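for the writeup, i need someone to sanity check this before i put it in the appendix. the sequnce is what the collaborator sent (i think, or maybe the updated version? ugh). structure was predicted straight from it, no edits. if anything looks off just tell me and ill rerun, i have time this weekend
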Amino acid sequence: MQRQLSRQDFYDFSTRAVKSCVLACGNIKKKEPNQDEVKIVLKAIRDMNLPKLVFEDVSLFDNLFMDLFPEIDEPEIDNDALQISIE
């Protein structure tokens, strides 16, 4: 990702970012203890990275993600609470 996405000062693919992703996995696991662990990891990776990406990099991120994990369905995003709050 670091080599293929555009260069942005705020993109962080360091060990600190990996640690944040692992912590996010733990939080998701606590909320959804019966969820498949692979799906938890993929959800955490997406949740931690997509909000930081500039618009032009989102489709590239999705394509890279699908190339790296072709056998995994894209995790479902639950935005119901956000949508209600916005309305």
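Residues 15-31 form the longest helix (17 residues). The radius of gyration is 14 Å.
thx in advance!!
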